[in-house]
């Protein structure tokens, strides 16, 4: 289907990270947690107010705010 | 011989569990020098030798991203431990190895304790440990920290590998970066740049990672070399930006993960099930963080915690009360009348006993919170509440600090302020630690309980709920105000792990609970003891002047002079405590007795008013009357600056001094109800003031320590008191207008 923003992914949708545009502290934090190009992620759920989201990556669960998800591009089927 | 080893690993990897398992009770908690990160140390005595173990803070990486990472790194660099025992979560291998790789790059001997083998097995993850060990070139021991399985082998392996020399791991970061690294390494080595502490290549990597801390110390060490290195970094960076559109640090992270991946791919790890298969934990999350059910469940859990705490702590609180009552009784009989007796009973036993009386309540609260924390639910609360907290400039993780401080009711701001350590951003942290004292800590509860019972007895639950809501609203609004004025700034990322739900272990929870309860007890034993004595002295001295005492004495003589001696005898017997003999005073005797009591009361009253505390209270009355507080309330509130517990006991003393009929001790709430100038309006005004005014002394000290400056501590005292006073005055004045 192409490349979309992580924010636009729906619950239970999976995809492969293609790009992480964040630098500095956020970028470092994202990378430390394994959010780097080539990794498969799955949107696990969203908080009651639709923000933050929880993701499954490398077998563990990670949370992320929508405005942080904006930095991540994902290729979805 | 004992040797120093460190325990390091990701958060939630089971580090604390292993540490407790290894050291048992032989551990103590301190701080890393200069910072507020907790440092746990302990010793482990085993067949393999005696080890001194330092528990490093849990981190995901060794960049200078958070305080914990800096601390962990500094410790490794400065203390040069003989071994890093790297605890790795086998059920989460890939991400955990990211940190291991960084340890190996430092060149310190590493032993991997591969933990959670049971969880990995359950999830159908199979790890070829031998192969992994060979590929990484480090010893690996499978363990289950929770049951202690593998502990012996781990210790043997540590002992066997301790003094071996290790080759630091060298990862290839791709042509551009490797070339730059080689060039930088050469320069660093030839000019002995920072080599006292760091390995040359490691320094080079940190430069490319744009690590502020290393770059800073580089500048201090040798500015010329530092600039040379920065130039190289700049060159690679612009090259990489032009060709690959990424920074070197991005590539370094990619390659580290790439290295891990290449290792794991060599048949090291295999999955029986899909890696991202729904775990039980995920199924729970589907319900527990559900849009509709989530908030309901959260409220239910909090209510449950509340019920649990108050229901089960009632009995032990009663024991404590009777115990202190008994001690007071013993002191009463053993000591002669006079200042010493008054000091021991009113000062020490009532003061300290009042605080220690809350220990069971606090302990049950912490027990419940420890359960929520260790089970993984607290992280879900942060997840669900982040959006709300963020609106006020806080962070989802602030929730923990608020709850520990008494967000649900009955916590303590001291551990609450300390709990802000988990917050990464200094700004959100500051806003949190300045507003958590507004929560209803265990020390304020008795004040509320007293006033509510006296003046709002019909609607106790509703009023308590209202109080909780007021304190939350106040805290959030103040946080918002602070974050949009004096501590403005970006919010920290909410990139956080949601650990799988786990059944907490009994031992883990007990240790957790005890650590926090102990902080509270220490406070009672030290600060509050001192404060009680000072307050007692302030309420006792200076006594009435000679002439005044004489005046009251004269009044007594006047009353007794005209009375027949049989009646005086009757009173004499009463005095000696032989109530049974007298059974009932004759009407005449009773009248005499009452007049005498009135004199006693007047004298005590005059004495209190003349005391230092009384004078302070009276002089403040001029302003506090706008909020409805008289001089006696002022004494109690001044005492509350030291510790909120003191408010109730001081009110008690101030309103009980010179009880008219001591045998019929009316409860304090009855006395307040009867007291002049008291009504629901005054009571609620006092409640508002108590919610918001200056944090207790210990909390202030904590704020100074955690915020890193006394400026913020002073701010919280002045600002909170001004806010509290303003709100109380508004409430009282508006309320008075409406009521009249
Ligand atoms: N099933 C299982 N649970 C474990 C094991 N080790 C630790 N835990 C649990 O994992 C949770 C986190 O452990 P903790 O020691 O607090 O992690 P830390 O954050 O690394 O200090 C706790 O609930 C432990 O009881 C293990 O080997 N197996």
**What's the gyration radius of chain B in Å?**
32 Å
Please give the domain count of chain A: 1
CATH topology of chain A: SH3 type barrels
Rg over alpha carbons of chain A: 11 Å
Level of helix content of chain B?
A: 55-70%
Fold and architecture overview:
- The complex is a heterodimer of chains A (77) and B (740).
- By secondary structure, chain A is of the alpha+beta class.
- Chain A has one domain (2-76): Ferrous iron transport protein A (FeoA) (SH3 type barrels).
- Helices cover 17% and strands 43% of the residues of chain A.
- Chain A has a six-stranded antiparallel beta sheet.
- Chain B has 740 residues and is α/β, with parallel strands linked by helices.
- In chain B, helix 20 (445-455) crosses helix 30.
- The longest helix of chain B is centred in the middle third of the chain and has 42 residues, at 293-334.
- Chain B is elongated, with a radius of gyration of 32 Å.
- The chains are: A alpha+beta (77), B alpha/beta (740).
- The A-B interface holds A 14, 20, 23, 25-40, 42, 44-52, 54, 56, 58-65, 68 and B 60-61, 63, 65, 91-92, 94-95, 98, 123, 125, 247, 249-250, 253-254, 257, 275-276, 281-282, 285-286, 289-292, 294-295, 383-384, 386-388, 390, 396, 493-500.
- Guanosine-5'-diphosphate binds at residues 11-17, 58, 115-116, 118-119, 144-146, 374, 502, 504-505, 508 of chain B.
List the main descriptive attributes of the protein structure presented here.
heterodimer; A: 77 residues; alpha+beta; SH3 type barrels; six-stranded antiparallel beta sheet; 2 helices; B: 740 residues; alpha/beta; Helix Hairpins; two-stranded antiparallel sheet; 33 helices; 10 strands; binds guanosine-5'-diphosphate
